[in-house]
């Protein structure tokens, strides 16, 4: 399709051609981003087809979250080099956004799994499950006598270095060495943790290994956990399972409860199968 050089479109026609609202074109005119080719005595705005490429460039850059100021600067000095640099910069930002969205998707999948477990679970049941990938945990050491409040503050600050924007972007909980379980020390935790999306090659992270895990649940406040650990040790002996490494605890229903009496802690402990 071709248009004569003097072909004019009304603002409505030009907006429909590019599938945008007339108010968008009016705003672009007001801020000097895209002026109409002509304004008649009656105040009506008219555009030429040759302006389509400029408008499509603006729309593309806006979709890439380029600011109005940046677009104005680019239009004043349009060149292949300036567009390339702008697209490279926004490409990096887009990669960052995609990475964050993948983290959110993973978090959503885990939350969905937790909600499915909540609807179908038998809290008295213990099962052996296979974890098919490693998990990467930011930790704060509790062995130095730090208060829980201070540990949470440090953990949150540390996790921000891994592009976690909010607490709900990650799973978090506590770590209890299995050797302490076998000694009957059910409250001698070694660390608080917050999971960050992996894989990550960075020193200082605690790696929760993949493999077979004994999974159990405890309902109610943390005061009930020692009793549940006694049940776990008894079950492991009966099944010939050897616990190893650490017990990983995390709450799985904070978003849907009102009191600690309804709180559910998921416990996962690596096991050596008979």
UniProtKB/TrEMBL annotation:
GO terms for molecular function: DNA binding; DNA-binding transcription factor activity. InterPro entries: DNA-bd_dom_put_sf (IPR009061), MerR-type_HTH_dom (IPR000551), MerR_fam (IPR047057), Reg_factor_effector_dom_sf (IPR011256). Residues 8-77 form the HTH merR-type domain. It comes from the Bacteria. Keywords: DNA-binding. This is MerR family transcriptional regulator. It comes from Pusillibacter faecalis.
